[in-house]
Write a structure and sequence with these properties.
CATH topology of the largest domain: Rossmann fold
Structural class: alpha/beta
Distance between the termini: 100 Å
Low-confidence stretches: 530-547
Shape: globular
Mean pLDDT: 84
CATH class of the largest domain: Alpha Beta
Number of domains: 4
Strand content: 5-15%
CATH architecture of the largest domain: 3-Layer(aba) Sandwich
Radius of gyration: 28 Å
Largest sheet: 9 strands, mixed
Strand order of the largest sheet: 6-5-4-7-8-10-9-11-12
Number of helices: 23
Length: 714
């Protein structure tokens, strides 16, 4: 019998397998002549024999116990090239089938005999295959008699890691070697803001939403969370469309979901669809969008988009799919608001009342991180209604200053302007320097520049009260001086002795090992499912049922603030963890441009509910120090080695490692990590105070309300 060849793995796979960074794997290749030689790939991207790599790691004591996710990755690696991607694609229906089972039925799947497991998978895949684009037939060799091993790895991963995490593992293989498309994932806070802009003045959310460049489905998921019951998506990459379909089916099983593949501009998969609303993050910088072949397309009601203005083609594509007064929100590069080639189309959008608002976001809100992107809010004009005489421009970038992104503040800035304008645009009151309703005549000049900062007036001299401004400046100076004293006091402890000639090396253990040994426990709160009525309409969440007990959210941990959530956002069908003093919290999702954040719960924070997307580690205090654990868990190289996923990157907690040290030595490290936490907190407080005082002083000096030091008031 022919022996099955071992799978080939990349350096990234080796790093995940060993629980180390990619840089460590590169060092192994250079420094250890016995490291397995490449068995395939290219000089710049070699691949290695999996069995040889595992043997080498095992001989060095670097091979951790396989998790179910690792077993699934190995099974996918057993099929090279398109075979592995086809396998991953055709396993998605089985994930959906397993997710529909109750917990007891799901946990019984890995223990089924091979023939029973195969029968279940074939039935589940046949039932759910129509939910995944790209699967033409449920009959595929993956369900053959010799595939019980990979299928068992799949169901074990669903049971242990969850259906969503299993989808992430399959997506890693699906998206491997996929060609670049200029698309970037939309961060969840931004997707939520875009969805909230779709609600009408009474707060009613549209029922049907289309995303013609849906990627992995983050915008449609945000729409579903807000109340949409019919979700339509299209993406040019089959891998992304399949992932989007699976994610949406897992998160909103009661919704009507239709996700298809193809280029929306060249080959619209929904030519007859009229949606209530559209959300879209169009491909970035794609010049080959079909300009020549689409010159006479009926969608170009506002003018034929120039070849260098693909975003204006997407704008008109979205408007063409809307019912009259239907709304679209698009994430746009800022250059679209001012490029000369697009000024005629911009002018027509403004004249017809199709463009309702432009919102400037701060840098870092989404990829590309160095650019402050814009949100365009559009509405298909109703020919029976009078066109609006103004466009709302909001500069959310100005309100955020140079601080780290505060999504709660950004949401508040945008929505506190949009909602009053939507309710009564004629009586809208501008916020100097932040938001204003700009008359069409001011926009329809030669340039038709829609950049908010160029039209929003700064605070007028009449609104500045010199005496009040001087008092407020004095108060802020006092806060800055106190923050500076605190920072100076904490930073005075600067004696950090070096180790010996070489950095210390120590034995480590994975958290999976510590969990098995009872050294700590892991708690997690699942995301709340969307509640619906029998008619399928979104149902408002019930009032608090626990007497208003607060919830510590992932945003609270990221922003170092007290618990701000409520129990209305938590699931109602499971026991909810309560945090205790000494617990260690770790953010589960890695945000764009940010690393994971840990937090040790203080005694006065105990009793709050644990919010979703947080990992809670409760150490046995006789064996583990909380601050020691928090410091090593959040180490960048540790988190990177435990990160999984593609568009949504999450931390696999069982792959994290900590050194095995005596408790007394742990406590010394813990005291050091606590000091670093206090230093970081004091520095952030001083930075915020300095930003506040300099902004206020600049406003006062440039507005004439304050004078430079040394000048009299005359």
């Amino acid at each position: 019998m022919k022996q099955q060849a071992s799978a080939l793995v990349t350096a990234a796979d080796v790093s995940r397998l060993a629980g180390v960074t990619r840089a460590t794997v590169s060092n192994w290749r250079r420094r250890h002549p016995d490291f397995p030689a490449p068995a395939g790939g290219t000089d710049s991207s070699p691949t290695y024999d999996l069995d040889a790599v595992r043997a080498w790691l095992s001989a060095r004591g670097q091979l951790p116990d396989d998790t179910p996710a690792d077993e699934l990755r190995t099974a996918l690696r057993g099929r090279s090239g398109d075979g592995g991607r086809e396998l991953a694609l055709h396993l998605l229906p089985a994930v959906l089938g397993a997710a529909r089972l109750d917990r007891r039925e799901r946990e019984a799947l890995p223990g089924l005999p091979d023939d029973a497991l195969l029968r279940w998978v074939r039935a589940a895949a046949g039932e759910r295959s129509q939910d995944i684009p790209g699967i033409d037939s449920p009959i595929y060799p993956v369900y053959s008699d010799d595939m019980a091993g990979p299928l068992r790895a799949l169901v074990r991963c669903v049971v242990v890691a969850g259906a969503e995490a299993t989808t992430d593992v399959l997506a890693e293989r699906l998206l491997e070697d996929a060609r670049g498309s200029g698309t970037y994932p939309t961060p969840r806070p931004l997707a939520a803001l875009m969805a909230r802009l779709l609600a009408d003045s009474a707060g009613v959310f549209p029922s049907s939403v289309l995303d013609p460049a849906c990627g992995t489905g983050s915008l449609l998921a945000a729409a579903a969370s807000a109340g949409a019951t019919a979700l339509h998506g299209q993406d040019v990459l089959l891998a992304q469309a399949a992932q989007a379909a699976a994610r949406l089916r897992l998160s909103t099983p009661e919704a009507v979901i239709s996700v298809r593949t193809g280029d929306s501009l060249r080959s619209d998969a929904f030519p007859g669809l009229t949606a209530d609303a559209v959300l879209c993050n169009p491909p970035y910088g794609v010049r080959d969008w079909g300009h020549e072949g689409l010159a006479y397309d009926q969608r170009w009601a506002y003018g034929v988009p120039p070849k260098g203005e693909p975003e204006l083609a997407w704008v008109q594509h979205c408007l063409a799919h809307l019912a009259p007064r239907g709304r679209a929100v698009l994430l746009m590069p800022p250059a679209v608001a001012e490029r000369t080639a697009g000024r005629r189309i911009r002018a027509q959008l403004v004249r017809d009342g199709a463009l309702r608002s432009v919102v400037a976001l701060p840098q870092g809100a989404a990829t590309p991180l160095h650019i402050g992107l814009h949100l365009w809010v559009l509405e298909r004009p109703d020919p029976r209604a009078e066109a609006p005489g103004t466009v709302l421009l909001v500069d959310a970038a100005a309100s955020s200053g140079n601080r780290d992104l505060d999504w709660a503040a950004i949401h508040n800035t945008v929505l506190s302007a949009w909602r009053p304008y939507l309710a009564d645009r004629d009586s809208f009151t501008a916020t100097p320097g932040i938001a204003g309703a700009v008359p069409l005549t001011d926009l329809l000049d030669e340039a038709v520049d829609l950049t908010p900062a160029r039209h929003i007036p700064a605070a007028s001299r009449q609104t500045l009260h010199p005496a009040q401004l001087a008092r407020r400046t004095s108060e802020l100076y006092g806060q800055l001086q106190q923050a500076t004293r605190d920072l100076t006091s904490i930073s005075a402890e600067g004696d950090w002795p070096p180790a010996d000639d070489r950095p210390r090396e120590w034995r480590t253990a994975t958290l999976a090992d510590l969990l098995r040994g009872g050294a700590l426990s892991l708690l997690h709160t699942p995301l709340a499912g969307r509640r619906t009525t029998r008619s399928g309409r979104a149902q408002p969440p019930p009032g608090p049922v626990s007497g208003g007990r607060p919830t510590l959210t992932a945003a609270d941990v990221l922003n170092s603030r007290p618990a701000s959530g409520t129990d209305t956002d938590l699931p109602t069908d499971t026991a909810l963890p309560l945090i205790q003093g000494g617990d260690v919290l770790l953010t589960e999702l890695l945000q764009v441009g940010h690393s994971a954040v840990t937090r040790v719960v203080e005694a006065d924070e105990a009793g709050c509910f644990l919010g979703p997307q947080l990992l809670l580690f409760r150490p046995d205090r006789r064996r583990l120090d909380s601050w020691f654990l928090a410091g090593f868990l959040s180490a960048e190289q540790n988190v990177n080695a435990a990160a999984t996923g593609t568009s949504v990157v999450r931390v696999d907690p069982r792959r994290l490692r900590v050194p095995l040290l005596p408790l007394a030595e742990q406590q010394r490290y813990g005291a050091a990590f606590r000091h670093l936490h206090q230093l970081r907190t004091a520095a952030r407080r001083a930075d915020r105070a300095a930003e506040d005082v300099t902004r206020l002083l600049s406003t006062g000096l440039t507005g004439g309300a304050l004078l430079p030091r040394g000048h009299g008031s005359a």
